Amino acid sequence: MAGVKRARDGAVGILTLDEPASLNAMTPDLLGALAAAVAEMTGDDDVRALILTGAGRGFCSGQNLKASEALGEDIAAGVMRFYWPAFRALRECRVPVVVAVNGVAAGGGFSLAMAGDMIVAARSASFIQVFSRIALVPDLGSTWLLPRLIGRQRALELMLLNEPLTAERAQEIGLVREVVDDAKLMDEALALARRLADGPTRALVATRALVEESEHATYEAQFRREIELQATIRKSADAIEGRNAFVEKRKAKFTGR
């Protein structure tokens, strides 16, 4: 598939943005290919975790300005048509998503990195919002995602001042789960993804959904919602296996069902 490489490592699907000459800058074609690749990869029930990374020296440098005309005169409609499906596919993915950030994640690329569930960053990685530098506002979900990850004040600091964020600093403030040497990035991302793939997939993804919903719910409503979802999840094969393993004092073997 043009623009996105696909690979498998057991139960882990690996998607690589593959436009290294532009540092994987976003175009309608690239994001369309990403949405299709996520759907195709997760259409296989044996895939139980995903990794998203970038080819070459960067994860994603943001919008490819040369391709902006392809969005049409109505920019909002164009972005929702061409870009939103890829972001939604990652955010609502039926399996956990690990993002392995190599090099720069700038502008919309920063937004894309946050669309996954956990970020592993190479030591050389950097994050920058960029937008106010060119008199624009953050987009592609940044104003929704970033404050929820690192808090309002730090999010505004990054958005208003446009200071690059190193991988180490990103870890300190909670944006990144771990920072590793560049040569070990994919090894560490795979180790994390394999760990997630071995887990009870339905319960993990339902947990993510509850966390998302909690941003807009009252304590009482979320209290009830957790129990309602629990009543459904507890009937799954993995939940039954988990209870049996606990009683039998052995390690559970989950199948994602």
From TrEMBL:
<dbReference type="InterPro" id="IPR001753">
    <property type="entry name" value="Enoyl-CoA_hydra/iso"/>
</dbReference>
<protein>
    <submittedName>
        <fullName>Crotonase</fullName>
    </submittedName>
</protein>
<dbReference type="GO" id="GO:0003824">
    <property type="term" value="F:catalytic activity"/>
</dbReference>
<dbReference type="InterPro" id="IPR029045">
    <property type="entry name" value="ClpP/crotonase-like_dom_sf"/>
</dbReference>
<comment type="similarity">
    <text>Belongs to the enoyl-CoA hydratase/isomerase family.</text>
</comment>
<dbReference type="Pfam" id="PF00378">
    <property type="entry name" value="ECH_1"/>
</dbReference>
<dbReference type="InterPro" id="IPR014748">
    <property type="entry name" value="Enoyl-CoA_hydra_C"/>
</dbReference>
